[in-house]
Design goal:
With 421 residues, this protein is an alpha/beta fold. The protein has 2 domains: 78 residues, no CATH class; 289 residues, 2-Layer Sandwich (Nucleotidyltransferase, domain 5), CATH 3.30.420.240. Helices cover 38% and strands 15% of the residues. The protein has 15 helices and 12 strands. The strands form 3 sheets. An 8-stranded mixed beta sheet has the order 1-10-4-3-2-5-9-8, sandwiched between helices. A two-stranded antiparallel ribbon has the order 6-7. A two-stranded antiparallel ribbon has the order 11-12. The protein is elongated, with a radius of gyration of 26 Å.
Length: 421
């Protein structure tokens, strides 16, 4: 996880002076150059992705080892050796592999000494996505905010759009473990007449019914001061949409969440019977052409670095120590709650790089492997598509005269402090 530039420009500079014990000053060692011991570089790690510098370094060492250049050595110690030497029980490994949530990719990297590369036929490149992992401040739900040094949900900056996206699945699949409702929040910040996506909240919900999922989404929309909500209204998502276009009373707090309406479809907007309901919902009715457009758009977003994701969970401890009071004194399960957004981001990355594609006529169709998911991909793709639509509107509005007083009124309303729930 150490940056290669840090190793090259800082750590390796400490290898300049070799060890020179006093006996080398004796006359018999006057030609002491031949007695000086070379300094060593020793790298130890689990395997990681093939696009990472450590894999390139290991290949360079292997070439020198096979070329019989003195001083180079490479060794891998997979889990099979631990079993052979009675340091690990074979049955424990078999039990882990048999579990429904077993992740073969992580296991092979961590235990099998197998670096992971982009899947053959994959649509998204790990190299493109990994360069976008630089966010350090996720959004947390209210029960986790109490320990944060800053307990305030960030206010929206001028022209920011905070987009909540939902890919709906209402029945958890015990057989395939591949159905979940995926919620993401994107703090889209204006940048050079375009938007920069910042995926600050990721969470999957399994087994919720229509009412529970709609209530959960409406809470999140209100609590995080969102400006837009995008939902797949094809199939089971229509029931959730129909709940969101009604007034919802929170049974835990008694708070009333006003109805919301649709902004991109007159037909869907007509389903809302509440007069003057804010038109903030983007209804997605996916077609082969639409699915083709969003996957190409999302891949381009990663390639152009227009999407920012949270850093790896391996870096999260250092981030959280700065962000949370007494983080190191928390129980492990409590620390894990704060690391979950970073872990969810890694799961999103694994999901993306394991997606395959096929060409159907003139359209690209994204396909998940058997037993794998694409709910996070769908939620992110919908979210990014809406951001790009808003970007076009922003460019159009820039050509008009804009009243700053109107902007001020809008953001005072949105940034009004929400109640905790």
């Amino acid at each position: 996880m150490v940056d290669k530039n840090t190793i090259t420009t800082v750590l390796k500079r400490f290898l300049s002076a070799t060890r020179q014990p006093n006996y080398l000053n004796l006359p018999k060692y006057k030609d002491k150059e031949e007695y000086l011991e070379s300094n060593m570089e020793i790298y130890m790690s689990s395997c990681w992705f093939k696009s990472h510098w450590s894999f390139v370094k290991s290949k360079a060492y292997t070439i020198n080892l096979l070329g019989r250049r003195e001083g180079y050595f490479v060794c891998a110690l997979p889990y099979q050796i631990a079993i052979k030497e009675n340091l690990l029980k074979r049955s424990d490994v078999e039990d882990e592999m048999s579990e429904a949530d077993f992740d073969e990719t992580i296991f092979e990297m961590e235990m099998g000494c197998v670096p992971f590369g982009d899947t053959e036929g994959a649509f998204f490149s790990f190299g493109d996505i990994s360069q976008c992992r630089n966010l350090r401040n996720p959004l947390y739900e209210s029960n986790l905010m109490l320990n944060l040094k800053s307990q305030k949900i960030p206010d929206l900056v001028l022209n920011e759009r905070r987009i909540l996206s939902l890919d709906v699945a209402l029945m958890a699949s015990e057989k395939h473990n591949n159905d979940a409702s995926s919620v993401m929040i994107n703090g889209a910040i204006p940048k050079n007449k375009s938007y920069q996506a910042n995926i600050l909240y990721l969470k999957n919900f399994e087994g919720l019914n229509t009412d529970d999922l709609a209530l959960k989404v409406r809470r999140l929309y209100h609590y995080y001061k969102c400006t837009d909500l995008v939902i797949d209204t094809h199939g089971v998502g229509l029931g959730v949409y129909d709940k969101l276009i009604q007034d919802i009373i929170d049974p835990e707090t008694g708070e009333l969440y006003p109805a919301l309406s649709c902004c991109n479809s007159d037909i869907m907007a007509e389903r809302c019977k509440v007069n003057n309901a804010p038109k903030v919902i983007w209804s997605i009715k996916a077609t082969p052409e639409f699915n083709n457009n969003i996957c190409i758009l999302l891949r381009s977003g990663f390639q152009k670095k227009k999407i920012n994701l949270l850093v790896s969970e391996l870096e999260a401890d250092g981030v959280l120590e700065e962000k949370i009071r007494g983080y190191n004194k928390l129980q492990p399960y409590q620390q894990m709650e704060y690391k979950l957004p970073f872990i969810q981001t890694t799961l999103l990355v694994y999901e993306l790089i394991n997606l395959k594609y096929e060409v159907k006529g003139t359209n690209i169709k994204i396909i998940e492997k058997a037993g794998m998911r694409k709910d996070r991909y769908s939620s992110l793709a919908y979210n990014y598509w809406v951001m790009c639509e808003l970007e076009r509107q922003l460019l159009h509005e820039d050509k008009k005269d804009t009243s700053m007083s109107d902007y001020a009124k809008q953001f005072r309303r949105i940034n009004k402090k929400p109640r905790f729930y």
